[in-house]
Structures are given as C-alpha cells and as structure tokens.
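Supplementary Text 2. Reproducibility record for the structural model of the 68-residue chain.

All settings were left at their defaults, and a single model was retained for analysis rather than an ensemble. We include the record here because the model underlies the residue-level annotations in Supplementary Table 4.
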Amino acid sequence: MSKVYLITGTSTGFGRSLASEVLERGDKVVLTARKPEQVAELVQANQENAIAVRLDVTNAEERDAVQL
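Retained model, structure tokens:
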C-alpha cells in the first residue's frame, strides 16, 4: 500500500528533492508551491501519484483555503 505525503516548497531545494524521491518510490504526493506551474513537469511525469496545490505557508489566507 502506498503512502500519501503533503510536501511544502516543492518547486526548489529540499522540498523538490524529497518529492522526487517519494515519487520514485511509487508513493503519492501533494506538491505544494507558491507557483504550482513550477512543478507541472513532476505532476505530468507522475499523473497517478502527484497533484499540485498553490500554497504559500506564510500566507494565512492560503493556508486556510487549501482543500484536499
């Protein structure tokens, strides 16, 4: 059974690397980024296991608006 991860900051750096590793293992990932278009290629390459959600964790309105 695969796991589901919600990973913040997936457009660059540690968040991006972690998301890539999790997807390579076959688990599912909710990729969050301030600019979700920057993770579009990860979603396209992993359509069964990845979705992108706009989220700036420093913005209270965006945090409250996230619907999963």
